[in-house]
Amino acid sequence: MRPRPLYSRVAVRLTATACAAALTLATMLVATALPGGSPPVGAAAAAPRCTTDELVVWLDTRGNGAAGSTYYDLEFTNLSTHACSISGYPGVSALNFSGQQLGNAAGHDAEHPATLITLSSGAAHEGLDGFATGNTATVVLQITDTGNYPPSTCASVAAAGLRVYPPDQTASKIVPFPFGACSRRGPLFLHVEAVQRGIVSD
């Protein structure tokens, strides 16, 4: 317990009833001052959201093929000097060699619920060597074989890479990676899951 402040040399005595009333009033004042479920004073504040500039976005190209699609791990590594948080779905689209979008942006796969993930500072753990410290999160990216779609609706072409917007960010990163993409809007040949903690693939 904190020591009671000494306001004067005169001892102030409160009855048990007065103490209870004071405690009740203090509780009401705290509840009024913290609307909308705000954390109480002294509670740990959530890490700020990871910005695009603080993240290295890269693709583990060792894909796993299944049922006409290949699944890749799209990684988000925090290389800033402080912890940051990430949650939800990134924006992902295919790009041609001129940097223009091909077809539709990736759809969302609700395989995993969106949860708030805190990434530790990679700068404090020698950057990319800091995987074990929790500075990387993963999104599973599904790329569907364009041969699954009629040529008239897909018009398959070679993509040069991916444009990736980290969750809740308006700035993007380019990830070079050649693959088959639909050049026409319509088929959802890309899908992403919500961000997961750590490196997902073996």
Tally the structural domains. Answer: 1
User: Any low-confidence stretches, pLDDT <50, length ≥5?
Assistant: 1-43
The end-to-end span amounts to: 49 Å
Shape: elongated
What is the share of helical residues? 10-25%
How many β-strands, per DSSP? Answer: 12
- Report the order of strands and helices: HEEEEEEEEHEEEE
Number of helices: 2
In this structure, how is the largest beta sheet organized?
A: 6 strands, mixed
Helix vs. strand class: mainly beta
Q: Whole-number average pLDDT?
A: 80
- Per CATH, the architecture is Sandwich
Radius of gyration equals 25 Å
Fill in the CATH topology: Immunoglobulin-like
CATH class equals: Mainly Beta
Could you tell me the strand content as a percent range?
A: 35-45%
